[in-house]
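Bug #77: duplicate submission created two jobs. Keeping one. Sequence:
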Amino acid sequence: MSNLPMLNLLLLLLLFYQPHVVEANQSSLAECCLEGKKAYAISKQCTKTTVEKIDQAGFCPRVASICCLVAFYETKCSEGKSIALAGDSCEALDAPGREQTKECCECCSLAKEMKKQGKQCNAPVDFSANCKAVFDQCCRYESAASRDEQSNLQTDFAEFTASVSSTTVGLDLSEQCDEEEEKFCEQQCRRVPGQKSISCSCRAGYMLNADGRTCSDVNECEENPPPCDVVSQICENTIGSFRCSCMNGFAWNETTNLCVDIDECLLFRDNCIAGQRCINTIGSWRCIRTMSCGTGYYLDSESDSCVDIDECALGTHNCGPGFTCRNTHGSFRCERRFCPSGQQWNSTAKRCVTISGCSHGFYLASDGSCQGSYYCKDLPRACAPGYQLNPVTSVCEDIDECMKGTHTCPNVESCVNSIGGYHCECRSGFRFNSVIKKCEDINECQNRSSVLCSTHGSCVNTVGSFHCVCDPGYELSSDGRQCVDVDECRTGTAQCEHRCVNIPGSYQCVCERGYSLGVDGRSCVDIDECKMWNTQGTAMCMGKCINTAGSFRCECPPGFRLNSDSRTCEDIDECQQGLCSKDDDICVNLYGGYRCHQIICPQNYQRDLRFKNRCTRKTLFCLPSDRDCMNAPMSILYNFIALTNELRFQDFGMNALPLITFNGPVNAETSVQYELQLDRVVTLGSKTVKPATRASFSVQKLITKPNAAVLNLIEPLQGPQQVDLDLIMHFRHAGNFGGRSLSKIVLHVSEYKENHFSLF
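Kept job's structure:
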């Protein structure tokens, strides 16, 4: 596929750099190129005989031959893209031009697969220009095959174009569209090889409209599959392109190039209230209750509150016939049905019915007999039992034995007066025992405790009655049967140190953020975040963590400043503050500190005016017999390097960490040998530090640059320590000794860790 741009370049060189071509008519050149493309369209091959019929002298057959090959490569690339778009394999290709076909097929197939997986369509930078073009086309127009019939799309080398018959114009055509033809097409125009017509096309991100001239933006966000991740990203269509952005609850990860979920619970971004626990979900969070609702209530999932269960409406009560179910908070109660005077409850009809069976003027007594009224009879002046004579009216009137107290009913019975007599009835809370002929106490609590007393209450039987006793945390209401929750938080009996939350039948103490509930369930104990997170292996602070009441604060060691997040520390570059003020000082910024190194040249050496960190020998001339002069370095270069503690460069896939590169003479007659010596190692501070050795470093000559070498660190170093190295460069010129040069390297290893190092 890489042959195609070379052919285009060759064609340009042929057209613009050959003197006799410059003088030729440009229209003739275009016609030669058009003839070459037509020749390929007819014969489907590019050979010498293909273009030998072109009767042009000199350059025309060569131009036609190149354009024939251009058409050949365009066609083969088209075939490759068609194979990939059809979903066929790119391997089974065995025909002339298969290299071009296979490359275009593979580039298009890769784009389809990346788009299918929802990844960004970005071609690697090392792809050829043609492969990148095919990659972009197939990435944006994966579904172009389904639109071919509508917009008459055909494959062109640079992008998808449309061949519309209505664009044909009767002009003398060359390869390039003229100014009028360019105006006809909204975006791009080109001649159709072998035909007297032009073809309008659109740039990437656009599609040709039905008129064959204008272009409309392609809404990539509506394509299937969508270009952005539907779970974590929002697709926003732009003119000619699109962009993906992270949804709420997600953040962009620079390492994975994906939108990843934000743990709102860990970052304290939730709005959960007391009594709730935060649970992280993909893209959001939810709050769940940590306490149950209790019997007689259910949890409303929308409001997250406890709602009373209406047992009466649901039919889950156990009230029998003759009783009405009445709902209460957390329970229900059964109430006896009472009928008006003259009616009684009919369990079959489930309603009150009129009592009948007695004559007018009489009523049905509880014993089933008809009583009432009276009649006149001539008798002596004496009244029947149960009556007494009214001296005024001389009428016998009923005696109310109950009111006079002349009845014989015991205490557990009630006297009921009747016309001419009375009868005894059992009081409320008693029933008549036909065996012993006495009234005995009714145990209302037996089998009916849950009906008489509400939930959280117990029924206690008494002689002739009962009373309800409430569970701890509840109190009896004014009706004597309903147990209502006691709000210990309002009454002040809870004695919570921070906050009190009332719950059915009890209460719960809740502590403010940064505290945990004590063992007594009331006091609040400060959480030591520093100790807790260090135990879990993730420090809250980059520097020193100081626990405070209900919180914590971070402090940075000397040489650092606290960042705006109040947790991480940023190194202070003391060298920018001018702390090393002497003329011969070199300031070295360390991770958490700095050093002032004074450059003092040894005897017989002087400061190099061009480089502050280099000393040169006062005299460079030596007698051959003066060995001391010959062996003395011609110059001494001071280098300072700062490293962080235990810098693990292996984690970045590096076997060695390049520290500094040394360059020697580049002429072929001069050679350089490098010799590294460990001068001294000074461990600092109170903690035990493994000192560096000569084996901690290596010197490697560069293959790509003559006489150059790089100093490598091949193992992480502990800090704090200072390592002094001497790198001696031995020069030989034309096989003879040419002198030495010394580089003194001072390596500072900080006591603090970070994946960072700096070179001075």
